[in-house]
Amino acid sequence: MRIFDWQQLDAEGRRAALARPAAALLPRMLQQAQAIIDAVRGEGEPAVRRYTREFDGVEPDDFRVSPAEFASARAQLRPEQLAAIEKAIANVDSFHRAGLPAALSLEVQPGVRCERLIRPLSAVGLYVPAGAAPLPSSVIMLAVPARIAACPQRVLCTPPQRGGGANAAVLVAAQLCGIEQAFKIGGAQAIAAMAYGSAGVPKVVKIFGPGNAWVTAAKQLVAADPQGAALDMPAGPSEVLVIADDSAHAEFIAADLLAQAEHDPLSQAMLLTTSATLAAEVAEAVRLQMQPLARRAILQQSIAGSRILIVASLDEALAVCDRYAPEHLIIQTRNPRALLERVQHAGAVFLGNWSPEPIGDYCSGTNHVLPTYGYARAYSGLSVHDFTRRMTVQELTADGLLELGPTACTLARLEGLDAHAAAVELRLAALHRERAA
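Above: the chain's sequence. Below: its structure in token form.
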């Protein structure tokens, strides 16, 4: 990993040090994703078959996962694997159920009642990557809050494996989370199929789930189309940023950096440290730990786009971190919780030496679908709220309208909207006549 002294960098150097590798590819990705979306929308299943054959090297007889495939998948997992999936589901369910959005009913003033009602989204699409690294954990993170929200139609798409079937662990996790409709379709073509309804995939109103940059581009494109489907958040290649002082363990940090960098060649791992000694130790530990790892080829590319930045203080580290707005933030300092209050922009935070990021990825209970590319400045991690709609209700009594109506009329006239004012004034006049009679 390359090491830079933040104090020695000029404005352009600092910008470059915090740049994401994928940014320069975005226009090409959007163009390619749009072509796939247009083809799927125009041709339907033939286009889905063509892209599945081109990108995945297979062409399933039926894209929909059959009951027999679900049963076969369960038989392929060992008891300890089933137990691990079930434990993760239980923890995610506990945490997310505690965060259920609440309805609200309030009399804001006499005779004026306002309410907020909660409604589940009618149909949601769950995208689960399953290429070189199948992600049953993503099934859990998507399907559990969708189930808690009681979305009546929950559709899952996941890329087919080389044999034409879906990954067994993905299917088992889906079944344990109550998913009945699963399809062996991946990439931008899966996003298009869910957004517009194709290849037997029902049309959904919102699409959830992580994916590579092309999946993210496709989600953004269909979300911009009124006939398409909304998206959860921009969620592309994974990223992690570690803040550490001289008390941190270099081996732990190196392992945390590699854990996220192995996701994708475009993933990024960053370390901000006040210790030049630690910076050198981490760089060497990354080099050594990377050698035996199965995804070394990916790591060589992602680590090339990663950085170690030496900062003057933890205050400066926090400022740089907020500028970067990481998906994952790990704080390994003498007193990590003391820094938490000043963290503003991060998808998920991991405090201390004994909180490795993969615990959040899999089984702590929080959600691992998080904003990347700096979108943590405005977006939050996935929750039950994202699978619901909030709808407000207003109900006024006659006395309530008599008291509040003139305020609305004044504001309407102030804005030059006399029809707005008239809709209230007509009722006020009727009430005054009625009471005068």
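The CA atoms of residues 97 and 148 lie 7 Å apart.
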